[in-house]
Design brief:
With 113 residues, the protein is mainly beta. Helices cover 0% and strands 48% of the residues.
Length: 113
Amino acid sequence: QVQFVESGGGLVQPGGSLRLSCSASGFSFSSYRMRWYRQAPGKERELVAFINSDGGGTMYVDSVRGRFTISRDNVKNTVYLQMNSLKPEDTAVYYCKAPLGGWGQGTQVTVSS
């Protein structure tokens, strides 16, 4: 079945960096656009970024543009989110998703001094 396993989260100080990974399985990974979402406490889940199936196009929400970079490896069936210059408002559980299947368990990112 379709599965997403996110990893790489943790506690980081403001201004720090993290690299999230999402390993996908159960479908033809290279055929689908992949998205990163996040959900902060008490807030709705929001789209952070997406990358087209061939990696040739990306989109970012305004709040992360210039600080986050999404990428993918279609051999490893993995999508990444490089997060730089992290801010406390980036604190959330981060999820990856394709346009099929359910949600993974997510990975917690906490930005705090």
